[in-house]
Specification:
415 residues, alpha+beta, 5-stranded mixed beta sheet, 17% strand, rod-shaped
Length: 415
């Protein structure tokens, strides 16, 4: 039995036997006094109903319930007056009785039997005495308690079995739910740890990426101010400063965009988009790069229209084409396919490890970002692509085809 089931089992038994123990104790301590109070009330009612006319009828009915009614003369010696071998009233109550008060008390007679006795003055000569034995009450209570204890002892195995079955049936679902919640909590903690590690690495990488252009700008501008640079070199130096400032600005803008996308702060504005036209417009931007690098570009574009965010999708496809340009190998083959199923971008490439493919979607995962930057990239390409596609609810897949020796990126058009 597992720990929770055991606790439920122990709790149920403690609760059951705790209530039983309290019940037995209350009966033992208070039941007799309660029964005596009820009998006193019954004797009082009989004394109030009593008249000499109904004495025979009332006496006969009362004796059936173990209650005895008698008229006793005041003129008789009170010490010698008997009602079933007992003193009918204690001496300390005698004066109250003679003064007209109704007295009722529990007394022990000469036969050592406890009785409840009620005495009431009828007139100057006679009093009414009503009495019943306490012994039957005590005997019944004791018998009842003994019987109840026997029942409890006999029911212990049954109760233990029921508690065991009930605790198992209750405990197993609770344990399963707790295990599931515990697994979810561990998963969330693991995600939090990974997220914290990612943020630390991200900040470190951003710092490193900004450090180089800032150092170049600071060095060149300081040299100009100090007069170290010759006048004829200043235009080239200013051009370099401007280029580094542009790169830094592009990186900052891309970082802001990435953070907004990751946090879900960028609204999605959907409209009908002609994907063929969009891809052709992006390819025109890099037509000179394709020519200068002797890229073998093969296009298979169908007329496809989807409903999505035009700006975000344009940015996503732009980054994918930059990547294919930057990392195409010496074979220089790029193939772009558009059909009803997906947008597929292939470029000949050196082998990639498919088992470690997720690493390419992390910011600044590429070591040689110079290849990307000459096309206006920032090193955040695939991480931005990933966030855009997630926000557009479009599935994607990146993998290396060993047969054709190409890297393939697919954007599936069916959500």
């Amino acid at each position: 039995m597992r720990r929770i089931s055991l606790k439920i089992f122990l709790f149920l038994n403690a609760l059951t036997y705790g209530f039983i123990a309290i019940y037995v104790l209350i009966n033992y301590l208070f039941l007799e006094n309660y029964q005596i109070r009820l009998k006193k009330r019954e004797l009082t009612t009989l004394s109030e109903q009593y008249t000499r006319k109904n004495f025979e009828e009332l006496s006969e009915l009362s004796e059936q319930n173990g209650i005895f009614i008698r008229e006793i003369s005041f003129t008789k010696d009170k010490k010698n007056s008997k009602i079933h071998s007992m003193k009918f009233i204690e001496n300390y109550l005698w004066e109250d009785l003679k003064s007209g008060k109704t007295v009722i008390d529990v007394q022990t007679g000469r036969d050592n039997i406890r009785r409840i006795v009620l005495a009431k003055k009828l007139d100057e000569e006679y009093m009414l005495v009503v009495a019943t034995s306490v012994a039957p009450i005590s005997d019944v209570i004791k018998s009842t308690l003994k019987f109840f204890i026997y029942i409890i002892l006999l029911s212990i195995p049954i109760n233990l079995y029921i508690a065991y079955i009930f605790s198992i049936k209750m405990g197993q679902p609770i344990e399963s739910e707790l295990l599931e919640l515990n697994a979810q909590l561990k998963e969330e903690l693991e995600k939090q740890k990974k997220s914290e590690l990612f943020r630390k690495n991200f900040i470190s990488n951003v710092t490193h990426e900004l450090k180089t252009p800032v150092a170049i700008i600071d060095g060149y501008s300081g040299a100009i101010l100090d007069g170290i640079i010759e006048d004829e070199e200043i235009p080239d130096i200013c051009k370099n400063i401007n280029q580094e400032a542009s790169n830094m600005n592009a990186l900052i803008q891309e970082l802001l965009f990435y953070c907004k996308m990751e946090s879900g702060y960028i609204p999605i504005k959907k409209e009908n988009i002609n994907l063929k036209e969009t891809l052709e417009n992006i390819l025109k931007r890099y037509s000179m790069d394709f020519k200068l690098n002797n890229i073998n570009l093969e296009l298979n574009l169908e007329e496809i229209t989807i409903e999505s965010d035009k700006k975000l999708l344009d940015r996503c496809l732009n980054n994918l084409i930059i990547n294919s340009l930057a990392y195409v190998n010496e074979k220089k083959n790029i193939n772009i396919i558009l059909d009803n199923e997906a947008i597929t971008i292939k470029n000949s490439s050196h082998p990639l490890n498919n088992e470690n493919i997720e690493e390419y979607f992390k910011p600044f995962s590429k070591k040689n970002d110079k290849k990307v930057r000459k096309y206006g990239g920032t090193g955040l390409g695939l991480s931005v692509v990933s966030e855009i596609l997630k926000n557009l609810s479009l599935n994607y897949k990146l993998y290396y085809d060993e047969t054709d020796e190409v890297v393939i990126f697919k954007v599936f058009l069916n959500e």
